[in-house]
Description:
By secondary structure, the chain is an alpha/beta fold. Helix content is 46%, strand content 18%. It folds into 2 domains: 10-130 and 266-294, Rossmann fold (3-Layer(aba) Sandwich), CATH 3.40.50; 133-263, Rossmann fold, CATH 3.40.50.2300. The strands form 3 sheets. The chain has a 6-stranded parallel beta sheet, sandwiched between helices. A 4-stranded parallel beta sheet has the order 7-6-8-9, with helices on both faces. Strand 8, helix 8 and strand 9 form a beta-alpha-beta unit. Helix 5 (133-148) crosses helix 6 (164-177). The longest helix is centred in the first third of the chain and has 22 residues, at 5-26. The termini are far apart.
Amino acid sequence: MTMTRRNFVSAFAVAACLLASPALAEDKGLMAIITPSHDNPFFKAEAVGAEKRAKDLGYDTIVLVHDDDPNKQSEMFDTAIARGAKAIILDNAGADASVAPVQRAKDAGIPSFLIDREIKESGIAVSQIVSNNYQGAQLGAEKFVELMGEEGPYVELVGREADTNAGIRSAGYHDIIDQYPDMKMVAQQSANWSQTEAYEKMESILQANPKIKGVISGNDTMAMGAWAALEAAGRTDVILVGFDGSNDVRDSIVKGGIKATVLQPAYRQAQLAVEQADQYLTSGSTGQQEKQLMDCVLIDESNAKALETFALSE
């Protein structure tokens, strides 16, 4: 039997619809993923991990960046709500400023699953999955004290003040370091998690305190900026410890530059949030308490080569 062009096109369209139908039936809807800027590899790893897991589980995704701007974050929540997102995965733009948009999403029937940074109220997000920043900071501080020989002038670079993690890490550092009376902090400045700002702050601090022996940083991005300033000043003898577990700091450790960092599992943390979102949407419960802590791991010359994209291979 011969088939006309019109019949062929019609048959092809029917076949295409039939092939598409199962996929449409399996589609679980839209999952919104909102993080700070992907210029920071930590936040990029979160977004990549969450998006991959969401797609594997059958969700469409929208990936948005708030650049630590609460107003921009609020607009992104409005976008997610307007597009009928089933769930929101969020690394937030401020512990206080993020409460209202998360509540707004909840009122619209959209659950939020937070990663990395907590908000200051419980009961409006379904999950808040964060690294055990205090435990991790203590690991980093213990290594820093050891490398410093328990003495000498040092500098602390602190993260963004509106971010709860900045304060928790600083407290964890000092609860260890302050036990050693010969460790003298000569400068403490916020570089707002920024590599460029850390470079500038480190330049100024070095001019005012040329005899510093060590620097402890609230994250790896600031650590990289500080290390660039130290290199430019010919001060590669300064002991520097970071926090995050980035590939950039891993490479510096391997080369004998930065001495250590603390790994927080960004990629896995984001995937876990997606898995809990899927379980919640499927069964009405994650089976976990809202606030969940994931322990951190010290990274130094002994295990740096096993680190890749915020994950440590066995």
